[in-house]
Amino acid sequence: MKQSLFLYLTILAVLSSVFTYMFLSKQVAFEQARYEKTTKKLRDSLSLVSNQLADANYFSLTKNENAQNYFDSGSSEKMIQYEKLIPVVTEKLLDFNSNPKGNPYTGQDQIGTNKFIVNKVRILNHRWIIADFSDGEIWGEVLLKYFVNADDSISFEVNQSLLYQK
Fold first, then answer.
1. CA dist 7 to 1, 3, 113, Å?
2. What's the rounded Cα separation, in Å, for the pair 102 and 138?
3. Model's pTM, two decimal places?
């Protein structure tokens, strides 16, 4: 009776070990497959986002070598570095937001009690800027020309402006 009990316990222990081994080996294989699938999906997503970012930045001074070369006059003392120019131009345009009548480079006169101010700026190339503006209720966009003058000052000119309907 004691021998048969030990025999049954031994068989039970062996079966339990076999089932545990099979379960754990399948689980490891399943986890590896899931990891590979997730990694592939993340790489594809990263690639897609990188392509979308490249497309979104296509019209940008930072990606346009022809526009960058415009600022290279050949003489090192007159060369303008576009990396430093972008924040300067953006800051100069946003400084006009402090005007009591609103930013004059929105191309719109004040409609209500709030003034139009520029919210977001994208420098497209060596000549054009697109900007988003609003008065808190009405939104619009403006296409500007900008010029770097001989005295290194920056001037702006409204090319076209539009307002979105409420």
1. 10, 6, 93
2. 13
3. 0.69
